[in-house]
């Protein structure tokens, strides 16, 4: 039964918007369960992108909005709360690149506040929890410490008898990645403390703004894609397999938490996570920060202790503007109850302490002028309107462009060319036009209309029926071709390091590449002739191209950019081709001939490929047919010397081609950390055993192989009654034993 307690607190200890609870409570239980699963999947994907891939797919505001809705659903429907829910977990599952380190004490997350009223509400809860009078009555025994929230990667540093012993990332809060060798290259991580103490110091690794600018300038000169922001650049730099790369990035650290081995016993409330004590004689967070500094750690000097909540608010307002003058990124202020005994009395919720909160700075908004709206043509021909703005500085950088997504978005916001507009950076990263300042209109403003013809090639624009997408249908449009080449050489395809957008523009403009195969016909001398290319740069790019001649077949297929064909479909199509085309010389040319013959003479055969329905089958046939865009593409790659790594033959579909093996006809999802397997290895083992490796749990799923960090997929499997296997049961299943 749904609950509608309007005073409910979420599992992160924060009050939930009563309207969100009421909205969730009004749902049917099945709908609530489905919505909870969908939100969990979306949040887990965002967590993985942020923590593992260091490439966020949601802004902070978008993530927080989804998280609060999930919390509201769980408040209304408590049966949805499981240990694997994103509301109960910290960070993301480990990527399997590094050895694992089990944290001695959990590295928890923090609840967020987005307004001064929410900070005052936090103070009210703290006072209530400590039995102190409510504001505005004074509470002299209660003080807060305010520290700048560093936008970096959380780490823990272990020192034994004063010597640096081990360093790890936060990971999922319980287990992190061993990045000791990389941390040793950071100058602010002391190799030896000022005294022979045995401690854990927790803090943040970050990339200074000047270093971020330097690296992006070098990448731009080399024609490489630019990094999005210092946080993810710093995280990616630390999580390199080669410590020399980390050393070359000039990272830095701030320490903010101290745990000493001979400290007082860990305090814990029933059903909560442990409260970290610091050290004998260290009774407060402010004293712990001073001791960290005395031991030789870098501690942020921009902190203040002895504050009541109103003084905390003054601190946040001061740094809201001043932060742009700092040499590093900060996205808020962390507020902590100073005394450790009071922290212990307040305790924890499942994923965060009740005695601390992170105040997030609101997106900085500025006024500028929308000078024009210009449509840009993407890889699939889609026209995306982009705002051309009068240059203005926002959140520390100058902005002249911002995407407006589509025509409907322009209409929804009521934008006119010539408008004075409000601009902000979503998550302090992505420029976003909020809306027009209607009061400043003079009558000279004009509406935007999508052009009737492609602005690049002049072909008549087509609009998808019932959709907002408008696109150029000309497959030879130079804008589309350049974007297709970028997709082909990108990480999801041939992964040619150094073939960035500026390089591609020159290669296309000079006529050096007209087909995908032309990449493999380039000489060092061809590349050396490009603007800003020295001999060494040309040799490096040429070497990357040569390495990419041998890529897994599914990567080549995915890199072709066939409509409706993502990486999972590419895997299945590669498996089908491995069966249909015998091994031997000139394999790629023979595979190309088969695809073109099937597309032209018997397109229904594409339905033999696992997971391919009528829509994808039609798209494949249209791409490889005689007059289709894919005609001759694979033969061209074969002529240029590309030799794919072909998977072991296994039937990919049903009927006479039914797969054999212990998992024949079974659909398996892998989630979490599986002992003895990386995610890719486990999914390949499923395919080798005749099964289908799927990315999402549904009623068609036969097994979920789940390890630590399985998250929402485990919850959904339990809801749907899908069999769940651990690593040991998975191995038995692969060997032919029933799970």
What's a quick, concise take on this entry?
The chain is an alpha+beta fold. It has 24 helices and 22 strands. It folds into six domains: 18-89, Helix hairpin bin (Helix Hairpins); 112-213 and 230-360, D-amino Acid Aminotransferase, Chain A, domain 1 (2-Layer Sandwich); 365-453, Beta Barrel (OB fold (Dihydrolipoamide Acetyltransferase, E2P)), CATH 2.40.50.140; 478-547, 5' to 3' exonuclease, C-terminal subdomain (DNA polymerase, domain 1); 553-656, no CATH class; 659-734, BRCT domain (Rossmann fold).
Any overview of this molecule?
By secondary structure, this protein is of the alpha+beta class. The protein has 6 domains: 18-89, Helix hairpin bin (Helix Hairpins); 112-213 and 230-360, DNA ligase/mRNA capping enzyme (D-amino Acid Aminotransferase, Chain A, domain 1), CATH 3.30.470.30; 365-453, OB fold (Dihydrolipoamide Acetyltransferase, E2P) (Beta Barrel); 478-547, 5' to 3' exonuclease, C-terminal subdomain (DNA polymerase, domain 1, Orthogonal Bundle), CATH 1.10.150.20; 553-656, no CATH class; 659-734, BRCT domain (Rossmann fold), CATH 3.40.50.10190. The protein is built from 24 helices and 22 strands. Strands 2-11-10-3-9 form a 5-stranded mixed beta sheet. Strand 4 (153-160) and strand 5 (163-169) form a beta hairpin. The chain is globular and about 85 Å long. The two termini are 34 Å apart. The model is unreliable at 1-13, 91-96, 263-278 and 651-658 (pLDDT under 50).
């Amino acid at each position: 039964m749904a609950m509608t307690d309007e005073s409910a607190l979420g599992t992160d200890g924060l009050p939930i918007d009563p309207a969100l609870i009421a909205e969730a409570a009004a749902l049917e239980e099945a709908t609530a369960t489905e919505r909870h699963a969908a939100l969990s999947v979306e949040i887990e994907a965002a967590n993985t992108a942020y923590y593992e891939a260091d490439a966020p797919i949601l802004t902070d505001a978008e993530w927080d909005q989804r998280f609060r809705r999930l919390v509201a659903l769980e408040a209304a429907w408590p049966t949805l709360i499981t240990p694997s829910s994103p509301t109960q977990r910290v960070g993301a599952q480990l990527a399997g690149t590094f050895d694992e380190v089990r944290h001695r004490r959990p590295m928890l997350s923090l609840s967020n506040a987005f307004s001064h009223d929410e900070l005052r509400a936090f103070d009210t809860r703290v006072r209530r929890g400590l039995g102190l009078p409510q504001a505005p009555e004074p509470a002299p025994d209660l003080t807060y410490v305010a520290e700048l929230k560093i936008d970096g990667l959380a780490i823990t540093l272990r020192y034994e008898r004063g010597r640096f012993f081990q360093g790890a990332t936060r990971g999922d809060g319980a287990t992190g990645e061993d990045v000791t060798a990389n941390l040793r290259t950071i100058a602010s991580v002391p190799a030896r403390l000022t005294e022979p103490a045995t401690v854990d110091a927790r803090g943040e690794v970050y990339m200074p703004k000047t270093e971020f600018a330097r690296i992006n300038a070098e990448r731009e000169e080399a024609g490489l894609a630019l990094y999005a922001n210092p946080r993810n650049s710093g995280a990616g730099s630390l999580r390199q397999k080669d410590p020399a790369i980390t050393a070359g990035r000039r990272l830095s650290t701030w320490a903010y938490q101290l745990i000493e081995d001979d400290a007082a016993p860990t305090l814990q409330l029933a059903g909560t996570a442990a409260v970290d004590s610091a050290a004998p004689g260290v009774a407060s967070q402010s004293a712990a920060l001073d001791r960290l500094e005395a031991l030789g750690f870098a501690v942020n000097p921009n902190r203040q202790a002895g504050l009541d909540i109103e003084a905390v608010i003054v601190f946040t307002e001061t740094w809201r503007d001043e932060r742009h003058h700092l040499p590093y990124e900060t996205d808020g202020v962390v507020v902590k109850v100073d005394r450790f005994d009071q922290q212990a009395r307040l305790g924890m919720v499942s994923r965060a302490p009740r005695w601390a909160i992170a105040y997030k700075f609101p997106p900085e908004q500025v006024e500028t002028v929308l000078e024009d709206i210009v449509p840009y043509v993407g890889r699939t021909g889609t026209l995306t309107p982009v705002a051309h703005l009068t240059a203005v500085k926002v959140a520390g950088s100058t902005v002249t462009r911002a995407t407006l997504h589509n025509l409907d978005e322009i209409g929804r916001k009521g934008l006119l060319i010539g408008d004075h507009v409000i601009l902000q950076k979503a998550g302090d990263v992505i420029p976003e036009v909020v809306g027009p300042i209607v009061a400043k209109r003079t009558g000279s403003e004009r509406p935007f209309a999508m052009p009737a013809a492609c602005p690049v090639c002049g072909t008549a624009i087509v609009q998808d029926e019932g959709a907002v997408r408008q696109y150029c249908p000309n497959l030879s449009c130079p804008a589309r071709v350049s974007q297709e080449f970028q997709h082909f050489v990108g990480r999801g395809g041939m992964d040619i390091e150094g073939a960035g957008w500026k390089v591609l523009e020159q290669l296309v403009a000079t006529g050096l590449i007209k087909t995908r195969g032309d990449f493999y016909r380039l000489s060092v001398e061809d590349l050396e002739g490009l603007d800003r290319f020295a001999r060494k740069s040309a040799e490096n790019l040429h070497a990357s191209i040569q390495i990419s001649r041998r890529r897994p077949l599914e990567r080549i297929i995915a890199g072709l950019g066939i409509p409706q064909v993502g990486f999972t479909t590419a895997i299945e199509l590669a498996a089908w081709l491995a069966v249909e085309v015998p091994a031997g010389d000139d394999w790629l040319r023979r595979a190309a001939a088969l695809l073109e013959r099937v597309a032209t003479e018997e397109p229904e055969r594409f339905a033999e490929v696992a997971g391919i329905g009528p829509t994808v089958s039609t798209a494949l046939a249209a791409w490889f047919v005689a007059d289709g865009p894919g005609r001759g593409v694979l033969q061209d790659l074969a002529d240029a010397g590309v030799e794919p790594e072909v998977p072991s033959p296994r039937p990919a579909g049903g009927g006479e081609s039914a797969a054999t093996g212990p998992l024949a006809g079974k659909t398996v999802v892998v989630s979490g950390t599986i002992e003895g397997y990386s995610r890719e290895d486990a999914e390949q083992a499923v395919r080798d055993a005749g099964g289908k490796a799927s990315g999402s749990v549904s009623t068609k799923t036969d097994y979920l192989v789940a390890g630590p960090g399985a998250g929402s997929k485990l919850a959904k499997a339990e809801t749907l009654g899908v069999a769940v296997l651990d690593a040991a049961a998975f191995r038995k299943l692969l060997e032919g034993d029933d799970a």
